[in-house]
């Protein structure tokens, strides 16, 4: 299914007058504060978030998976679904592939299809946390950290293969997340596991093209429950620095223990020039992979506040960040969920752009705790939805993407095209 700009423009008509009124009112209010609403709209219109190729179908838990019907069964259909998202939101202009779940057997054809939707290829992701058919060595006890040299060599070779696929698609980065760790004391030697991981990552790093980056992701637990080799941002940073200037840390919002101050981690990594990118989701207890902003929207705003400040005071020359949604959609229509996530990310970014940084710094200098909180919450409590809608209109997207998605009966049409019992690959 394809949604054209003409269709979106026609369906926008009913809401256009109200949007113009709301935007005009907010623009006037922001002008009085010395904030250029049009400049924020331009920044929002330029902001793009990658959709992972594994997020277009219903996800699951350890207990079950409930298909929604009409799910994409191949990479071409996944690109078509991202094209739908991008047509509506004008924010989903990139895709992140997971190999071997989505191997581009016809790279030229895949690139052409992505181009037709205005989509580029973001980071490619390796998979050494699952055994694949006809795989010689098992990853049951580890991959890049494993005690067996043959297992490590196989895992390194897979990452090199992923780089090769990425080069075919003009991707410029590799994301490495490891499940390596131990579930019981005595299972592994901590020091040897970390040393093996560093050496393996250095071998992968040596294969990176000169204009590529490597992102090293971390997670405190799961699937190993006693120890995880790359369990926190400090370990990720240590390994990145041990590889070289093209290696960076990747922050997944769900990959932290409850109540972790993620915004402080962000500030530290930007200060070091080693923040590579983000995987957006939300959580209540652990790595819940819920809709972005559905549980902790204020924390998301605080994170973006540090991102905006960090990139405006980029003394360490931290490169532009890679943005991606990494969520699991077991209850909702995955496309509607992704639309909601994209909206939440834009909301937090827009709110952060409203923060009066000079006033906040003055309050901090005077240790005026109350005023500092008031300045942040004034930005957070501003209804910035008219700015986001205006940014979508600027790129000929939908004023209300969910409403148009439902009015056009997108899910029903996908079920007619693909069937009710389809299952997306990689889940």
Automatic annotation (TrEMBL):
InterPro entries: L-rhamnose_isomerase, Xyl_isomerase-like_sf
Presence of the UniProt keyword Isomerase in the record: yes
Keywords: Isomerase, Manganese, Metal-binding
Domain of life: Bacteria
Record has Transcription as a keyword: no
Transmembrane segment boundaries: none
One Gene Ontology molecular-function label: metal ion binding
Name of the protein in question: L-rhamnose catabolism isomerase
Lineage of source species: Bacteria, Pseudomonadati, Bacteroidota, Cytophagia, Cytophagales
């Amino acid at each position: 299914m394809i949604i054209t700009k003409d269709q979106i423009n026609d369906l926008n008509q009913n809401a256009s007058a109200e949007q113009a009124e709301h935007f005009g009112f907010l623009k006037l209010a922001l002008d009085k504060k010395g904030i250029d609403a049009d400049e924020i709209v331009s920044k929002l219109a330029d902001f793009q978030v990658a959709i992972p190729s594994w997020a277009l179908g219903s996800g699951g838990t350890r207990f079950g998976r409930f298909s929604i019907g009409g799910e994409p069964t191949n990479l071409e259909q996944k690109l078509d679904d991202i094209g739908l998202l991008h047509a509506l939101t004008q924010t989903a202009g990139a895709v992140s592939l997971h190999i071997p779940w989505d191997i581009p057997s016809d790279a030229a054809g895949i690139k052409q299809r992505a181009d037709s939707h205005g989509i580029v290829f973001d980071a490619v992701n390796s998979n050494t946390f699952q055994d694949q058919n006809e795989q010689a060595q098992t990853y049951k006890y580890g991959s890049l950290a494993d005690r067996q040299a043959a297992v490590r060599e196989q895992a390194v070779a897979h990452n090199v293969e992923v780089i090769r696929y990425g080069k075919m698609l003009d991707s410029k980065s590799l994301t490495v997340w490891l499940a390596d760790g131990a579930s019981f004391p005595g299972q592994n030697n901590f020091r040897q596991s970390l040393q093996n991981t560093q050496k393996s990552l250095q071998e992968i790093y040596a294969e990176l093209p000169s204009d590529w980056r490597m992102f090293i992701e971390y997670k405190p637990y799961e699937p190993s429950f006693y120890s995880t080799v790359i369990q926190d941002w400090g370990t990720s940073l240590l390994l990145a620095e041990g590889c070289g200037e093209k290696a960076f840390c990747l922050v997944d919002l769900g990959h932290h223990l409850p109540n972790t101050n993620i915004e402080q981690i962000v500030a530290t990594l930007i200060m070091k020039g080693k923040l590579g990118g983000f995987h957006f989701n939300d959580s209540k207890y652990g790595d819940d992979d819920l809709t972005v902003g559905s549980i902790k929207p204020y924390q998301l705003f605080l994170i973006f506040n540090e991102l905006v400040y960090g990139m405006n005071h980029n003394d360490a020359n931290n490169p532009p960040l890679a943005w991606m949604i990494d969520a699991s959609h077991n209850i909702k229509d995955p496309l509607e969920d992704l639309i909601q996530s994209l909206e939440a990310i834009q909301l937090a970014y827009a709110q952060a752009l409203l923060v009066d940084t000079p006033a906040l710094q003055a309050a901090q200098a005077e240790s005026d705790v109350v005023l500092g909180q008031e300045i942040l919450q004034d930005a957070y409590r501003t209804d910035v939805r008219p700015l986001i809608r205006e940014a979508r209109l600027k790129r000929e997207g939908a004023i209300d993407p969910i409403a148009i998605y439902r009015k056009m009966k997108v899910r029903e049409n996908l079920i007619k095209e693909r069937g009710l019992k389809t299952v997306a690959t990689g889940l």
